């Protein structure tokens, strides 16, 4: 059907309109629809239009305004030409064989004037936005109707042919263009505050994603493989539109970033033929999700998405899944998704993981699900028995694994964000008190679960192995995340009372004393302020980025520690040699802060040595010397010390 025919067909339809928009204090009278989440955003019923009865064409209900509106009507921002006018004839004498030089003429004579612009009034802008919204709602309603109708069809229903798929793509493309026009107009520099707020009040980014992209993508996904080519085309179309909005409508930058990550993940998921293409789109999606998590580090949903993209690295997957449940805004759906990681290990299915990694993941699967309890002790034993030799073999490559393991163990102590966990309850209650009566009442009122006791045994046995590696720089990231967890818990006496007797405080004090010898700035580690170089821009450690957003680092880092850091996304996990000293100072500072109460660790400022409270002053058998521990780890095959080795990209380790 032609464009004019479509226009005639809809000439008698009355599109809905936005409520009147005022420009003064009364603008708050604009009624706003109820918006709950990105996953469930609908425009209000009063704003919806009803299509004429008998209209069966899925595309021909596009409003007349959409088809007949000229480019000049939506070009709200005049564009200034940056081109320099060439010299006029007779102004420059140019010899044959020589190039014209701009220095040969008076520059002021060739500058062009600013193009004449037509200012747009508030009334015109409001009318434009209302017109765009009217057409948008009509197209949106048709998209919802068509998507629902197609989704309800059974497998026995007739398959869509190529022309029908193209028609559906054209319909959704029209909706995306309408949203684009709406955002440009409502966010115009001349727009009033009331006009600018409309996009948020009516949840336009969420509606664009849900009705313009996501519903249709799900329809295409369920029709695979027949719809593959059309799905690819639509993903590219939607990705281009989101990238354009990311550049032109920065007000909703966070929404565009996450949408770009979602589109990249869709594209990655349907790529089965070319592994290189799959890896490219995995990297693209990971980039956007990582960027989104930097802007919203407390949002667990983003870590869940990163966990999916972390395949086949099971250790990294476990880290991201656990983190998604142990942040201030947990993503509870991750409790179902994480089982896709655990199921093969719980069922005894063969995997391609190293035995030590498989044992670690299997132990967490048992702790998380409560299934196969008979396999817990053998799995923990297998991991613990192999750990020391594994660290010795992998040397600096274990630095990344170290903070992944340390964070996963911390999450296991919180029972992966379970609200019934006694530690979680204390942390979320914010009951930072040293009152003895309150402490004893809290301990008596809430007994730790068996899952917490099993996780505590697993964690402390791991500590016992790692903290015996005195002088080994490969284990300092693990020490760092462990001390940050204990430092936070030390502010909650009731919570600490449940685990303090099992923590190997003596080994921790000995490990810290091995780092004291390398410290050159005792004023930094003995002060109360976070140790940082105020003369330089912050350079967070890889383990800082890994911990960012977790419940136990909420008050750990300075407010500008990450926001003021000028680091590209791909460099966040790049380990450089200078970080070793900073990480050691950080560990010593955390140890000193824990020792300030003298309840677990103690610190002698005169001797500059750490020790433990009398109740933890126990003899430890089979203590290795520093030379025993680092003989194989400090010296690489080429004779270079790991302490002074080349820079390492932690992501590739």
Kindly list the characteristics that best describe this protein.
653 residues; mainly alpha; Serine Threonine Protein Phosphatase 5, Tetratricopeptide repeat; two-stranded antiparallel ribbon; 27 helices; 52% helix; globular; disordered C terminus
Report on the structure:
- The strands form two sheets. A two-stranded antiparallel ribbon has the order 1-4. Strands 2-3 form a two-stranded antiparallel sheet.
- It is built from 27 helices and four strands.
- With 653 residues, the chain is mainly alpha-helical.
- The protein is 52% helix and 2% strand.
- It is globular, with a radius of gyration of 31 Å.
- It has two domains: 172 residues, Serine Threonine Protein Phosphatase 5, Tetratricopeptide repeat, CATH 1.25.40; 347 residues, no CATH class.
- A hairpin with a 4-residue loop joins strand 2 and strand 3.
- The N terminus and C terminus are likely disordered.
- InterPro entries: DNA/RNA-bd_Est1-type, Est1/Ebs1-like, TPR-like_helical_dom_sf.
- One of its GO terms (cellular component) is telomerase holoenzyme complex.
- This is Telomerase-binding protein EST1A protein.
